[in-house]
Amino acid sequence: MIAGIADGFVGRNARGPMHENEGRSTASCIRIRGARQHNLQGLDVDLPTGRFIVVTGVSGAGKSSLVIETLYAEGQRRYVETFSPYARQFFERLDAPEVDEVEGVLPAIAIEGGTSVRTSRSTVGTLTEIADHAKWLYARAARLFCPGCGEEIVPHTPETVAADLRRRFAPAARLAVLFPLPVPERLPAETVRAGLAAQGYARVVARTPAGDGNWWWWVVQDRFRLETIEERRLLEALEAAFAQGQGRLAVADWDELRNRLGEPAETGEPLFCERIPAREYRRERYCGACDRTFFDPSPGLFSFNSPVGACPTCRGFGRVIGIDWDKVIPDPSLSLRRGAIRPWQGGFSAQCQQELEMLAPAAGVRLDVPWRELSEAERRWVLEGDPDWIDWETSWPQHWYGVRRYFEWLESKSYKMHVRVLLSRYRSYTVCPDCHGARLKPEALAWRLIAADEAPPPGRLPGHDLPELFALPVEEAAAFVRRCAAGIQGKTLRQVFEEIETRLSYLCEVGLGYLTLDRASRTLSGGELQRIHLTTALGTSLVETLFVLEEPTAGLHARDVARLIGAIRRLVDLGNTVVVIEHDPQVIAAADWVIDLGPGAGAQGGRLVAEGPPAAVAAHPASLTGAYLGGRLRVQAERTPREVGEILGCDSTGRASTT
Ligand SMILES: [Zn+2]
Ligand SMILES: [Zn+2]
After folding, report:
1. How far is the CA of 311 from the centre of ligand 2 (A)?
2. Would residue 89 count as lying in a domain?
3. Which listed ligand is nearest to 314 at the C-alpha?
4. Section 306-333 average pLDDT
5. Is residue 132 part of a domain?
6. Same structural domain for residues 272 and 329?
7. Cα(487) to centroid(ligand 1), Å
8. pLDDT tens for residues 230-281?
9. What does the CA dihedral 530, 532, 537, 541 come to, rounded to 10 degrees?
10. Is residue 344, in this structure, part of any structural domain at all?
11. Residue 252 pairs with which residues in a beta bridge?
């Protein structure tokens, strides 16, 4: 198919009328002269800057040699040279391309689909920097719900306490406002009472332990009926109790309190109780029902990359490595004697099987019954060992160590290669038992972002904690964040919301609305990763930069190609130059400028077949790409880019099916 085209090849010096680059000032293009990287045949080509350029051609025509290994390599080299020698060492240095001259090249950034950024911790959220902004958002805008009882926890003021009382108690209720007074162990009760009386306090309802033998005396600040008390007097009472109680107060139904504790005595020690039977409020974040104090959150609390926020058990990975019992006992129909414990069938661990068979009868563990029919106690003995096991020195070999200790012993020898190989066969990653994959400390999960218009069904907490938000498809997360942002006043907080909203909408724009922010980047396809980087580039407001992309439509559904083009167009409108290697007809048709390489692959390629706006290339008699674009070769509209790519003979490696 290619050979026939070669006859019609039109070299650079015999360009057709479609060449519109003549007279263009050199300042507005990147001039490449004599490019010989790989199979490029001393290629001369000009790329207009500030434009959207697509480089086309059959597989092996030299597209990557031109775009990545010449243009990008040179741009990256010059970009790195703008840094100090010290900083330069942190950049990946590319080999200088084989080229006579490159003029007007811009600092270049390759929007890669490669593996270079895929650390085991990186996710869609971290790649897009949404995770970075989200931790500020949660530290500033999230609300706290007690993990013990689900009540919202706010730092209280007299006003919030008053509102809570009116919500919580019947209007007819008679209430007592109490404050705790610290009383040292040795202070005589009468002295304390005299001191209180001097300040006008007559009643003490109870004392509770304050540790170290000291006490809290619960003193009545005021009593009143809720429906008749004036708001002003209520607030004054609460303010005074907070002041006396150094930020703590309690409110009780007076009748209920007397039912439980009796009429308060007026002399001697007050009645002892473990906890005051009243609702406690604090100026700090505190749950009275669960007697739990909370701290104001820092952004670090919401980052699994921070020691402040990372789940201590899995260190923020969400998974832990452990013994996979299904691999240790793969066939539960086998008896112990027939080899139920897989790792002990041969090799250096065969001795364990002998020891098991020797010790099992005395422990009453049956050796000839299928594993699945053994009792819970028998299995526990096999796996966990003798209950009276102490350590290897004292207990071995007369006591049974159990499969678990066998693995612990192996771990201690894991510097040996064959042990590491053996261990790897019986271990696997499982979801972290403490955070259940959420990667954050439990404290972080108590904070929830809530939309103002939200009314959750009873029994469910409103809004989302951070891992829940990150588990939503980007589309849904975007809608939720938009609702939360409505009505936000503070300027700084508004900006944080905007940063996140913009990035989420970019992700939707490039057709990635189905991804979740917690998706590990190592599980993304090259096309997905490249489009994520594209959204990051859109977010950085870089100008006069050369962006290079290789097949960004890979794996993209046909209907999302238009959105991808829109995103590229935005990057160009910001004043950048975007060069894309692509054979998707929709992308080619949307470009400002097309450079068609060929005509064949390898030695048959590496030449400029046609260049110009898509319409001009389509009209070019020698261009195969143009032939398809112009409809001279029939490409049905409903064909997928993949099929078109195959028709053009393009390499479709790595392309997911788009149908
Ligand atoms: Zn609670
Ligand atoms: Zn964990």
Report:
1. 4
2. yes
3. 2
4. 91
5. no
6. no
7. 29
8. 999 999 999 999 999 999 999 999 999 999 888 888 888 899 999 889 999 9
9. 160
10. yes
11. 176
CATH number reported for the structural domain that contains residue 209 in this entry: 3.30.190.20
Mean pLDDT of 378-383: 95
Please tell me the distance between residue 439's alpha carbon and the centre of ligand 2 in angstroms. 5
Grouping H, G, I as helix, E, B as strand and the rest as coil, residue 44 is strand
Look at residue 87 and give its three-state secondary structure.
Answer: helix
CA of 401 to the centre of ligand 1 (A): 43
**60 neighbors 602 (Cβ within 8 angstroms):** yes
CA 189 to chain CA centroid, Å, is 58
Domain limits at 331? 319-431
Dihedral sign, Cα of residue 146, residue 151, residue 154, residue 155: negative
Are 279 and 162 members of one domain?
yes
Closest-lying ligand to the alpha carbon of 320? 2
Instruction: Return the closest-CA partner of residue 657 out of 508, 527, 517.
Output: 527
Task: Tell me if 30 sits within 8 A of 597, measured CB to CB.
Answer: no
Same structural domain for residues 231 and 165?
yes
Looking at the fold, whether 161 and 232 belong to one and the same domain comes out as yes
Q: How many domains does the chain have?
A: 3
Centre of ligand 2 to C-alpha 441, Å, is: 7
Tokens coding 296: 């104001």
Residue with tokens 């400029």: 608
pLDDT reported for residue 540:
72
Which of the ligands is closest to the CA of residue 304?
2
Q: Which ligand is nearest to the CA of 311?
A: 2
Same structural domain, 98 and 24? yes
Q: Looking at the CA of 289, which ligand is closest?
A: 1
Sorted by sequence, the CB contacts under 8 Å of residue 417 that are 6+ apart come out as none
The tokens describing 394, both together, are 């004292």
| Closest to 554 measured CA to CA, from 524, 575, 593, 589 | 524
pTM for this entry: 0.68
Provide the 3-class DSSP secondary structure of residue 30: strand
Which burial class, exposed, middle or buried, applies to 492 when counting CB atoms under 10 A from its CB (0-12, 13-18, 19+)? exposed
Mean pLDDT across 521-537: 85
Which residues 6+ apart lie within 8 Å of 316 measured at CB?
A: 121, 304, 305, 309, 310, 439, 440
Burial code (b: 16+ CB inside 10 Å, e: under 16) for 418-456 equals ebeebbeebbeeeebeebeebbbbeebbbbbbbbeeeee
- Residue labelled with tokens 């930020």: 247
Structure confidence by residue, pLDDT tens digits, 47-64: 999 999 999 999 899 999
For 287, which DSSP code?
E
Report residue 88: phi and psi, to 5°. -60, -30
Same domain, 97 and 167: no
- Distance CA(582)–CA(53), nearest Å, equals 10
Q: For 629-655, what is the mean pLDDT?
A: 48
pLDDT tens digits along 127-161: 899 999 999 999 999 999 999 999 899 999 999 99
pLDDT higher at 90 or 15: 90
Residue 610 lies in a domain: yes
> Does pLDDT of 636 surpass 60?
no
